Amino acid sequence: MERILNFIDGELRPPVGNAWLDVYEPARGTVYAQLPDSDSRDVDLAAIAAQRAFATWNALGREGRSNALLRLADLIERDLEGFVADESRDNGKPLSLARRVDIPRAIANFRFFATAILHFSSEAHLMDDVAVNYTDRQPFGVAGCISPWNLPLYLFTWKIAPALAAGNCVVAKPSEVTPYTAYRLSTLCNEAGIPPGVLNIVHGLGPKVGAAITAHPGIPAISFTGGTRTGAEIARVAAPMFKKLSLELGGKNPVLVFADCDFEQMLKTTVRSSFTNQGQICLCGSRILVERSIYDRFRDAFVERVRALRVGDPSDATTDLGAVVSKDHMEKVLSYIDLAKEEGGRVLCGGERVVLQDEMSNGWFIAPTVIEGLGPARRTNQEEIFGPVVTLQPFDDDADAIRSANATPYGLASVVWTSDLQRAHRVARQLQAGIVWVNCWMVRDLRTPFGGMKQSGVGREGGLDALRFFTEAKNVCIKL
Ligand code: TXE
């Protein structure tokens, strides 16, 4: 049985306590490897290594750091198929999706921040003939990066790339559910010329390793993506320590479909925004609000397309949905389908576990599910399900659509389908969401701010916002 190792001070190491956890392959429901069940002792070793490496990493300068990260991106690209296969095996997602999205975006993350840092300018403010002020943005030392299982390498690199580019060293913890591609990345760092101790990866459970990173006095900033409840726990520990916090949390994203939209374009994209990655993307649209005059037409056309989606072997090129990430998560998603029925919802398609043949008969597969007949206040329309489950709701006018869209504790992303330009701007301004896509979905420009409102998070991690998060801004004022 293969054993994944921690990466501390440039070395692949077993956990101090020599304890191990099982790593499952969701499509087969079987154990395929083990990962370290690390604890605070491993985090301490990583933090010491990171603190020790800080001067070396900064002595490289922006160009030196940029070149090292660009080399790392090239090495991932050289090993693309290996990363793709590992990502799909670990997460259960279709191989085609890992090849089209996850791994290319991880490479893009390194390349974007490795070049952004070269153009990361600062400001100066002249006070007539009194004084000149300039903003000095410096790295603060060691960043803690904690990432989730849904887009494992994509979101892992989304955090460590800007942290490293800005000049910090990193103590990172990928999700214990999908550790493999972070491990594979660690095997390339020395070859890329990343000095020992600059990037440290400690594998293990959130309440042990993640909590130790959050509470560590030598790690002054935490960048986290995951569930809202976990985000609240991290904030509870970090706030009294006055740590910098970036929390990217859950979502319950609305899709607003107006009667004047480009119907075919909307339909094709809305199937994607509902079920890509088995609905396990914080940006997926899980509440579809449809103008009443086209509700029946939309419902029938949408359900027909969803029924045609293929749930199957992630390695099969014709598969649209793979397995959900864990048995616990499958049971959580199925419990929400039961809840929807109890609340009076009508399941129009899907609604059950899919049992495949042969070696995948124990895999954790769920049929793409569409539910109607539930009002905005129902739990099914309030709580994040994070699986292949969407609800349909009609609305009467713009105000009704906006009211329903904003009627949850979350505010991460939203989609508006309309051909009316003024309405697009007007509705976008009133939606409580950090991201509003109009007539598209998942179009991402890394220079833009990224993050949510309300319980979807705190802070913005996109482009230059990420470099600002991972640096301290000091104002120097010099008398003329
Ligand atoms: O996330 P967790 P999970 C949502 C989604 C999902 C729910 C829970 O609804 O069902 O969150 O998913 C680490 N201190 N999203 O359980 O627990 C943990 O080890 C420090 C949306 O995977 O938040 C992992 O590395 N760290 C989200 C990371 O936090 C802790 C994507 C995320 O795990 C910790 C994923 C603690 N006390 C889930 N407890 C998005 N916005 O994309 C856990 N962790």
Q: Looking at the chains present, what oligomeric state does this protein adopt?
A: single chain
Report the major sheet: 7 strands, mixed
Can you count the beta strands?
Answer: 25
Radius of gyration, CA atoms, in whole angstroms: 23 Å
CATH superfamily of the largest domain: Aldehyde Dehydrogenase, Chain A, domain 1
Question: Could you walk me through the main structural features you see in this protein, from its secondary elements to its overall organization?
Answer:
The chain is an alpha/beta fold and 480 residues long. The chain has two domains: 2-249 and 456-479, Aldehyde Dehydrogenase, Chain A, domain 1 (3-Layer(aba) Sandwich), CATH 3.40.605.10; 253-445, 3-Layer(aba) Sandwich (Aldehyde Dehydrogenase, Chain A, domain 2), CATH 3.40.309.10. It contains 15 helices and 25 strands. It has helices at 40-59, 61-78, 80-91, 95-116, 152-165, 180-186, 189-192, 206-215, 228-238, 263-275, 295-307, 327-342, 398-405, 421-430, 463-469; strands at 2-3, 6-8, 11-13, 20-25, 30-36, 124-127, 131-138, 142-146, 169-173, 199-201, 221-225, 244-248, 253-257, 285-291, 346-349, 353-354, 365-366, 369-372, 389-395, 410-411, 413-417, 435-438, 453-454, 457-458, 472-479. The strands form seven sheets. The protein has a seven-stranded mixed sheet, with helices on both faces. The chain has a six-stranded mixed sheet with strand order 10-9-8-11-12-24, with helices on both faces. The longest helix is centred in the N-terminal third of the chain and has 22 residues, at 95-116. The mean pLDDT is 97. Bound molecules: ligand TXE.
